[in-house]
Amino acid sequence: MVMSLAMASRSVEILCGISLIIQTIEFLNLRGALSPQGVWTYAIGRDDLAHASKPVQSLFAFLAREDVWLLHLVLRLLAALVLVIDGASLPLVGFLFAGTLVILIRWRGAFNGGSDFMTIVVLSGLLIAILVGASGDSELGWRAGMIYIAIHAASSYFISGGIKLLNPEWRSGEALALFLDGGIYGPLSRLSLYWLRPVAMLCSWAFIVWECLVPLAFFDAELAVIYCAVAGLFHFLVFWYFGLNRFVFAWLASFPAIIYVASQLN
Amino acid sequence: MSVNFALMIGYFGFLLAALVLHSRPVVSPWLFLLRSFFPNWRFFHALGRAPRLYYRHQTTDAWSDWHKFMPRAERRWSHLFYNAEVNLALSEQNLVDHLANDLADCDDDAAALRLVTYRMVERLVREKLAGYAGLSAYQFRICLERPGFDPLIHAAEAVDNLVLQSPVMPFQPEGR
User: Fold this and answer.
1) Which residue among A107, A121, A184 sits closest to B86, beta carbon to beta carbon?
2) Interatomic CA distance for residues B176 and B173, integer angstroms
3) CB contact under 8 A, A182 and B94
4) Contact between chains at A178 and B88 (C-beta distance less than 8 A)
5) Which of A37, A179, A184 minimises the CB distance to B72?
6) What is the pLDDT of residues A102-145, one digit of tens each?
7) Residues of A with CB below 8 A from B45's CB?
8) What is the total count of domains within chain A?
């Protein structure tokens, strides 16, 4: 199975756009937390930028105004829709990239952790594709962008699995049950199977091995498809147990790049 | 093709070495705000002791028990496509985590009260208390707790867990 560059790049655009739409609708409904009455009020948050120059402080003070923030999010929603329907362009991706940066700084560097990181990775990949393509070789640009996204996505699984492999609490299964118990949809029922050490150990090892084996996905395009299918299930489970819905869509946007790079290597 | 695979194996070997070798964290205000550009993929990496927020309130002369802030929600399928409240609750817990980190680097009590994270957590507590009637004062504290810790069962351990106890503050709901 081979994924063409055109199919991969278009798939990344559509999936990234859907991910941004979901995130932006959530941000639109979380403006209260950033309002003058909210926990993340700029009256306090501006002190995070005390080290910045006066023009930068003034710029962020302007962007943090409630009316400007609302306008930004509405434009971001429209830009994400255009990305899905019409594909990437420099002004569009540049705006989405810069906007993501502003939003994350407003939320003190990250709002949702890993999904923010992967959103930046995919938008960076799109930006690389367009900027390199602007030199005249559009195909080279898209190839570079896909490789960039694939490397980061593969690294995310490998590091996440590797760090668990090195941790005895993960290897014994203890960590899984306790993280699930402390999760947003916890606590685990006393009758939950995850409290049984063999079950927890089996589940932990299944994910550790699967994450650490991500390099294998690049040895065969069909293996890459299977790997990404399991990854989709994995991210759904992370959503189901920890409420991290944004992770599902942020990582989905990287899968076409993994499959494309695997296709090219074989 | 063999060069590609050699590069790939070399890259994952480098990642593995980076996991095993300990590195010194780089600290900078801009790096903190721009940390999404330097992805940290070490999700749920170790159990450790997690920072937990407790708060209590006073009505007339009586203090309530300490309430533990533990983000919890009811699971729904629709949350896959829209989960703003849960994501906000997770961000609130992250804020508590960042306050605990900031406190670890802060050896001056007066400076702690000026921390961005301290002032935000103070607001968070006021927000959580906004629904209570007749409040006159409130107080909060941060404790480092191992997973499965229960203050009722492990009472002796609770004292060692305390990393911050705020002064008693008069209650004034935000924006009133």
Assistant:
1) A184
2) 6
3) no
4) no
5) A184
6) 999 999 999 999 999 999 999 999 999 999 999 889 999 999 99
7) 163-164, 167
8) 1
In this predicted model, what pLDDT tens digit does every residue of B122-133 receive, in sequence order?
999 999 998 888
- The stretch A246-265 carries a mean pLDDT of 96
A104's tokens: 């994350």
Cα separation, B127 vs B67, in Å, equals 14
Domain that holds residue A50: 5-131+138-265
Question: DSSP letters along A103-132, please?
Answer: HHHHTTT-SSTHHHHHHHHHHHHHHHHHHH
B56 belongs to a structural domain: yes
What's the domain count of chain B? 1
| pLDDT at residue B18 in the model | 85
Q: Of A44, A112, A178, A248, whose CA–CA distance to B89 is shortest?
A: A112
Q: How many residues does chain A have?
A: 266
Name B141's bridge partners.
B54, B165
Tokens of B26: 């780089």
**B19 within domain boundaries:** no
**What domain range is B121 assigned to?**
48-170
Mapped onto helix, strand or coil, the DSSP state of residue A230 is: helix
Identity of the residue in A39, A100, A246 whose CB atom sits nearest the CB atom of B127: A39
Q: Does any domain span residue B162?
A: yes
B176 band by pLDDT with thresholds 50, 70 and 90: very low
